[in-house]
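Changelog-adjacent note: as of this version, every example in the card shows the full chain rather than a window. The one below runs 621 residues end to end.
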Amino acid sequence: MLLVAMGVAVLLATAIGGLWLQLRKTRRMLEDGLLSRATFEQSCHATILLDGRTMEVIQANPAFLKKSGYDPEELSGLSASRLFVGEKSPDAQLAQLREPVAHVPRKSRLRRKDGQTIEVDLMGHAVRWTDGPVLAYTCHDISLRAKFESTLLEKQRHLDHVAHHDQLTGLPNRLFLSAHLPVALRVAEQNDQMLAVVFLDLDRFKHINDSRGHETGDQLLKAVADRLRETLRGEDIVVRMGGDEFVIVIKSIRDVADVQEAAQRITESLSSPIVIDGAPLITTASIGLSLYPRDGSDMGELLQHSDTAMYKAKERGRNNFQIFSPFMDRRLKRRIAMETHLRLALESRQLDVWYQPIVDIDNCQVVALEALLRWNHPTHGFISPARFIAIAEESGLIVPIGEFVFARVLQDVATWRKAGYDQVPIAVNVSAAQLQRSNLAKLIVTMAQQLKIDPTILQIELTEGTIFERREGRNGESNEDAVTKLRDLGIHISIDDFGTGYSSLSYLKRWPVDSIKIDKSFVRDLDSDSSDLAIVGAIIAMARHLDIAVIAEGIEGWQQLEKLRQLGCDRGQGYLFARPTPAPQCDRFLRGQPIDLTDRSRANENIITTGIWPIQAGQLA
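Full-length structure tokens:
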């Protein structure tokens, strides 16, 4: 019993001695003025004292006890590695705590007694102590701040995603491409690899959007985006540039065959019908491709060249892909030069309207005049409409040019009327683009009223393509609606270049027309080609049964004229009768007298006809 009592006494004395030594150490530190007892005890900041050698807890203030959930006895001698946890290993964590940096907080997590962790900033400093180093750490609870920072970071990521992605399709957008394509080019350069930039434009998307509504158009765009994602590899980039335009960056290209294969896959993926609201919708795409480093060394060059190739695909009939070549670039420069100078021509009155007579084949009496647009360039002379009409349609210049033609024609009619000449109908060519983009009936009525002219003096010539394509214009009306309005004004409708377009006879039944013009390609060899003779004979016979007048274009010889007479053709037009002539020289067509075909002096007329302007790259810069 005595030995037991002595043992207990020794243990008790040891415990008391240890506690006394701990209190003595704390007291010495406090008495040294390095840490005020009142400050330590009453501070609202959780503060803990650690033995600098063992990294065990010496003492904690009430704020720390409350924050951690421990009692003083439970904390005493507890290793700092049990209290503080981080991304590093426990040993690395302790090593870092042993060397506090003044005024530099360290992020950590305080593990509470209940096992929960709190995000904290640890601000530590060494305290001088005669019996050994002591480290004082103040813990600032930053859990709320961390949560707030996490929320801000998440919002920032969301905003970044919104800024760099298309909201409709979820695809990356133009801004994303600007940031990532230059990086992809550097990687391709470092790895000595090829890279393809693909420009994709949906064919006739505007027609789908206008005819079936914008909601259908949006669903189509999303479906196309999904198919592009499924078709391409994960490393490739698919970007929606806006509208119905997409750009694809294909990485790690070995040769041109890889690009062709990828383009073929894209074309095939879009060829199958897309079902929207229960109805199948077929769409195709025109695709242009450029290759790094062959076709350009930076983003701007590659995008420009792939865009050029895409337009070449559209010219080739759409629903195909084209790989850029330098020839395309030269052609684009010529087109840009032509468009630029066409705008200047419209502003500086280089455009004019000439007239060619349409005659009755039996008596050579002038029954109408066809208005023909002429461009007299100050340097290059007369430029063929075949060189610039397509460009005018693509650029939208066809609308102001068309307004110019109608204004000039009606002004010439007013001048001829004032001079007392016979009034004959004037036929004016109207393109599909002009019919779709302007309210032609309203334009004609307004101009005719200003000059007090009956609009029925006009005849409108439309190509088969214009008649056949059931597109809608900007005001929501179809081509058929626009033509119906013209007919309601009493204006005659003629089909130009008959037989060279869609050649669908159904529109002759659905759309009442007054005349058709047989294309000159069938008239040219009429006297020597039996096939042309049969085709022209069939057209004339059909038109006669439908009570439609027939005009043969391009009559240049007597034998052609005689064949047409034998076939029963009503009217003719061509150099045999007269060449296109400026308005001031048209008086001889308006005197009511037939054209004298025996007068050979016309062969020596100094009248300049349609010319060709072979613009080369770099001209008119």
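Structural remarks: The first strand starts at residue 46 and ends at 51.
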